[in-house]
Amino acid sequence: QVQVVESGGGLVQAGDSLRLSCEASGRAFNAYFMAWFRQAPGKEREFVGSITWSGSMARYADSVKDRFTISSDYARSTVYLQMNRLESEDTAVYYCAASRALLKARTDPEIWGQGTLVTVSS
Fold this sequence. Notes:
This protein is mainly beta and about 120 residues long. It has one helix spanning about 100-105; strands at about 5, 10-15, 20-25, 35-40, 45-50, 60, 70-75, 80-85, 90-100, 110, 115-120.
């Protein structure tokens, strides 16, 4: 079974940048499509972006596509979420997720991390 663990959250100011990491472990982790989701206080969890281990097929939510970048490092079994020009609306718990199916990775992945909190002060 694949497991994912996020790191890198913290408190930043509006306009700052932050990079989250997601390390995957377990057999055949490279067979999974990777994704980031977030859940803001009082809101539903939402899709942020997804990527393959080859670094292709990156997809983003409209709310972040001009500011966030997802990348993957197969040698380190780690996926990154680079967040630039952060806004107070980006405050949320960010989750790394994985699925064997691409569409499922973007909607209802079967594997989730524990989440990492990002707080953006205005």
